[in-house]
Amino acid sequence: MTEKRVLITGAAGYVGHLLGESLSRNMSVVGVDVAHREACFPIFNLDICDASLVEVLRAERITHVVHLASVMSAGRNRAREYQIDVEGTRNVLDACVRAGVAHFTLTSSGAAYGYHADNPAWLRESDVLRGNREFAYSDHKRLIEEMLAEYRQRHPQLKQLIFRPCSIVGATTNSKISALFSGRSILDPGAHNSPFVFIWDQDVVGAIEYGVTRDADGIYNLAGDGALTPAEIARLLHKPLRRPPVWLLKTLLALSFGLRLGDAHPAQVRFLQYRPVLLNTRLKSELGYQPQKTSAEAFAFFAEHALGRKVDLNSARITHCSDLSTSDSTQLAATNHRTVV
User: Fold this and answer.
1) pLDDT exceeding 90 applies to what percent of the chain?
2) N or C: which end of the chain has fewer CB within 10 A?
């Protein structure tokens, strides 16, 4: 068996650092990033848009690339974000093809499905990707996956493993998602009560490592079992639930955006109104990876370690897909409603 030699983009980031530390115990790992971070594996200071990336792949004899680099927080320079997210991914893919890399793993996102009122209650990998154009992160993830589909046709020798994670949480999470729960109240604009699905950061690392080790391919939602509504999250955290009218929140965001007090665009209220709720059946049944924590357990772990709040899950009202054991036709119908237990 050929020795696996892995390169991770975004290696100084949250998941990239965790993944590199874990993978390097069993195989050769290097990373690239524009940020500096101490790690137990080498991280080269290199932009993913740099044409010299192919030379790094050749020099390190890389067999597997895990592409994690992405712009996580929306700013005001959409062109620059597109250059990093979309054109940067294109450069990484072209470098992989030119250097003869065998396996490419991407962390896409549940955001690629888009934030829409008519989303299925539980999204499957076969559902159409409709990333919102007004939300750069969502739009770019959709465009990247469309690009990957083209590369699968043109370069079938490069195996692709694509994960679509939901909200990633862990003991040290510091992100836009974690900020939603660290304030004095929980926000639910318009009282949509759209559920959140969570995945433990160690399960993200575990799933990627599982796939890389087995040279797996395919597309998989990456989520824990079940979901939690904003109302239930507020109850579990003992925080008030705020449900301002959507128009009011959009007005406030428009003022903030116009005065350059914040970078959130009014249209991004959809991020809270219509959450993409990911079904993980394929992850478990086809890839064979079983998350160690359910969605609720991952959130409880995050709440205790990152927020300092103990959560009692014994009385938690967890939203589940109503039927995971029926035939495909029945299951498709079942995914269009949720049950709470």
Assistant:
1) 84
2) N
Contact present, 115 and 138 (Cβ < 8 Å): yes
Q: Which of these, 239, 245, 217, 204, lies nearest to 309 by C-alpha position?
A: 239
- Confidence at residue 263, expressed as pLDDT on a 0 to 100 scale: 81
What gap in Å lies between CA 218 and CA 216, rounded to an integer?
7
Confirm if 320 and 338 have CB atoms less than 8 A apart.
yes
b/e per residue 146-176 (b: at least 16 CB within 10 A): eebeebeeeeeebbbbbbbbbbbbbeebeee
Distance CA 22, CA 209 (A): 8
What's the helix, strand, coil split of the chain in %, to 5?
Answer: 40, 15, 40
Tell me how far apart the alpha carbons of residues 276 and 197 are, in angstroms, rounded to a whole number. Answer: 8
**CA separation for the pair 97, 26 (Å, rounded):** 25
| Under 8 Å between Cβ of 198 and 302 | yes
Residue 80 has pLDDT above 90, yes or no: yes
What Å distances lie between residue 226 and 17, 62, 95, CA to CA?
A: 27, 37, 38
pLDDT value at residue 333: 34
Joined together, the tokens standing for residue 155 give 């370069």
Q: What's residue 82's pLDDT? A: 96
State the Cα–Cα distance between residues 110 and 100, nearest whole angstrom: 29
- Looking at the chain, the number of H-run helices and the number of E-run strands are 13, 13
Q: Rounded to an integer, what distance in angstroms lies between the CA atom of residue 135 and that of residue 82? A: 12
* pLDDT over 70 (residue 124): yes
Closest CA to 157 of 109, 99, 89, 100: 100
pTM, to two decimals? 0.92
Is the pLDDT at 337 greater than 60? The verdict is no
DSSP state of 3: P
Smallest CA-to-CA distance from 36 within 66, 13, 58 is with: 13
HSE-CB for 132 with a 13 A CA cutoff: 19
